[in-house]
Amino acid sequence: MSFDFSHLKLEVMGRVDALRVAEWCAVAGIRKVGAGLFAAPCPFHAEKSPSFNIGGKKGFEHRFHCYGCGWDGDIFAFWQQLKGCDFKQALTDMARMAGVAMGAEVTWSRPVAPAAPVLENRLVTEDVPPDLPPLRHLRDTEWAMVAEKRGLDVDAVMLCARSYRRMAFSMWPLYPRRSGVWMPRCERHGKNGCELDNNSCVAAATFPSWCAIDDTRHVAEFRRLDNLPYETHRGAIKTWSTAGKNWPLGAHDLETRPAVMLVEGGPDMIAAYHFLHRHRMLSRVSVVCMLGAANRMRESVLPNFAGKRVRIMVDADALKDDENASKRRVPGMEAASRWSAQLVAAGAAVETFCVGPVYDTADLQAWGRGDIKAAEVKVITPGLMLPDGVAVKDLNDLAKCSDEVLSSDDVRQAFRQWDF
Questions:
Q1: What's the maximum distance between 2 C-alpha atoms anywhere in the chain?
Q2: Percentage of residues in the chain having pLDDT higher than 90
Q3: Considering the entire predicted model, what is its pTM?
Q4: What value, to the nearest 5°, has the Cα angle with vertex 155 and ends 399 and 89?
Q5: 417: number of Cβ within 10 Å
Q6: N or C: which terminal CB in the chain sees fewer CB atoms within 10 Å?
Q7: CATH numbers and ranges of domains, the chain
Q8: What is the pLDDT of residues 25-35, one digit of tens each?
């Protein structure tokens, strides 16, 4: 088995810090002495008072230092010293402890699925994953482009793509042919059925893209790496999604973590990894993503959330007004309410975090009945703002806020406090 040591090391560091490693190694007498800093009696020499520092402020969260004997090193050196092994063994042991996949394939392959259930001699459509074009892992330059365009930590995007296998690369848009080959649309004939095998056919443009996905491949959402819209025969569109959008990405893999962050849309999914990585919470919190506010979660997956603490990150969609009161909508809030009801019924504890305005409940209900106009709905709390004064709409927007906003108690608690 061969290992990519540099990526594997980053993946382990994204999931665990010095305190977690010390706990794994049963270091005795650990106590908190400051922000992110802990102390204990040194495991490498005898002493009466604790002089062995564990972790520390940003940049030192993976280090140990003893003021008694002078021992100093990171989590890998600590494991080697305590276990008497080399770096490769330490990295392998810690990756397994942290739940990091070892020896991942270079390309994506469809997992062997159990037999699809049968209902009245017909396959249940929602349990059949859609056919997808060839996918591969994102390369360094590709996840770096996604991180730059969206204002996210490149290490966090790499973890999302490689460790958690939640992002893949494809050229898009492509269409399946009768021969089973995925090819672009024929621009000249305006249809997808052409084989593009004669001089009269002209292939439409395709674009380097990333897609939000998980190992089940039940659903995928494609977006351009450069964050621009797709220029197609239907005009400019932001995303392409397959069928099956009631499947919550990542919901098949919740066993080892007590908490879940539920977001809507691919960009918010990688933003969730960005924030949880910064707060060193990826070892405790799973990220689950719904692709579209109008969807209900698939009932068959809801038992996976039983006993979990789920925080729903609510998109700040504007009030969608209409002369017909029955068509008035607040998509983000309605989606959170719908998913919350499903999750509570499944046995989960649920909390919401809204980046946008909080409206007066009575006014909101009156607007929904058609009694008042949208402009008359009172705002109790205005919501978060970007440095240029524009309102934050979603979790990806939140990553672009000022340090003052990001260090506020509400924002910090949204990613660190899971005791509800």
A1: 85
A2: 42
A3: 0.70
A4: 145
A5: 13
A6: N
A7: 5-98 (3.90.580.10), 131-149+165-241 (no CATH), 259-416 (no CATH)
A8: 888 888 888 88
